[in-house]
Amino acid sequence: MRGQKLGAGLIAQSQSALPPFMLHQPTSLGVAVALARQHPEAVIAAGCSDLVAQFREGLEPEVLISVRRIKELRAISNNAGVLRIGSLVSHAEGSRSPEILSTVPALAAAWGSIATVRIRYRGTLGGNLLSRRYRYEMPVILAALGGQMQFQGGDVEALPVSSLWDRDSLPGRNLGNAGILTAVAVDTASLLWFGYERSMRPVSTVSLAVRKDPVAGLTVSAVCGSEYRQPFVLSHTAEATDIAELDPVSVGGVLAAQLPDEAGDYAGSIDYRRHLVGVLCSRLLAQATGNKGKDSQP
């Protein structure tokens, strides 16, 4: 129960009154960017599937900018080895996108597996990322792919998806004065393989990508997430020229060993979590290499 804003007594939390706020609904990115510069403290709204929850948690915006009518934020393109996904693309649209299906089909499959049917049709890429909730899965998926968030109208032009968990440098759910998230860019030119394991959710999920290293060898990037802890980024560069040369169990163990002690919690000790992440990483790498050997049990 919460007290009503005007002091009319106790009422159910779902019925809490919000103080008045200014609502802007621009239809072009240029106008939205100008509004974001004019109101750097504004809350940016897209599908609003998470915004209602934030209201119930106490969010009281003075200015709200709805970008839902801006068509250019729904674009998906693949040019010169860069997959660019607009921030207003819904989960359902992303999972069916011809550009994504033809470029990184495993991303489309992972995207289509998250949330519920209702949320998949309403929730957007931008909202899933900028809500910065541990249990949301797109940050885990896109961080392993090295996704770069692109902004306009704020203090920054681009930030890695993995920076969403840097609470010290990025205060608040709307990333301070970052402006409007326009898209997420993924380099696909060096990408050899990508996969996502969520069979042990909510205890742990793992997103994993294998890329050609710019200097030599292959780089394996994994992100371990759960509903209870911030995601952790894991990485290993192997002296290999072909993905089939990777040893799934060995590389999986190296990645899991990088989990810090604070990754353990009441849902699983750090020893169990390292074991589990090692199994999930090995399972993904077995798919990547075609090595279908015996798999450890979580």
Order of helices and strands: EEEHEHEEEHHHHHHEEEEEEEHH
**Count of the domains:** 3
CATH topology of the largest domain: Uridine Diphospho-n-acetylenolpyruvylglucosamine Reductase, domain 3
* Number of DSSP helical runs: 10
Could you list the spans in which at least 5 consecutive residues all have pLDDT below 50? 1-11, 169-174
Bin the helical content. 25-40%
Order of strands, main sheet, comes to 6-7-10-8-9
Main beta sheet: 5 strands, antiparallel
Number of strands: 14
Strand content: 15-25%
CATH class of the largest domain: Alpha Beta
What is the 3D form?
Answer: globular
Mean pLDDT rating: 89
Distance between the termini: 41 Å
Q: Which structural category fits the helices and strands?
A: alpha+beta
Q: Which architecture of the largest domain does the CATH hierarchy give at level 2?
A: 2-Layer Sandwich
Tell me the Rg in angstroms. 20 Å
Structure, explained:
The radius of gyration is 20 Å and the shape is globular. By secondary structure, the chain is of the alpha+beta class. The longest helix is centred in the C-terminal third of the chain and has 20 residues, at 270-289. α9 (248-256) runs antiparallel to α10 (270-289). The strands form four sheets. Strands 6-7-10-8-9 form a five-stranded antiparallel sheet. The protein has a four-stranded antiparallel sheet with strand order 11-12-13-14, with helices on both faces. A three-stranded parallel sheet has the order 3-5-4, covered by helices on one side. The protein is built from ten helices and 14 strands. It folds into three domains: 2-66, Uridine Diphospho-n-acetylenolpyruvylglucosamine Reductase, domain 2, CATH 3.30.43; 72-187, 2-Layer Sandwich (Uridine Diphospho-n-acetylenolpyruvylglucosamine Reductase, domain 3); 192-289, Enolase-like, domain 1, CATH 3.30.390. It starts with a strand and ends in a 9-residue tail after the last helix. It has helices at 29-38, 51-56, 91-96, 98-103, 105-111, 117-122, 125-130, 138-144, 248-256, 270-289, and strands at residues 2-3, 10-11, 22-24, 43-45, 63-66, 76-79, 82-86, 148-152, 158-160, 180-187, 191-197, 205-212, 218-225, 232-238. Residues 1-11 and 169-174 have low confidence and may be disordered.
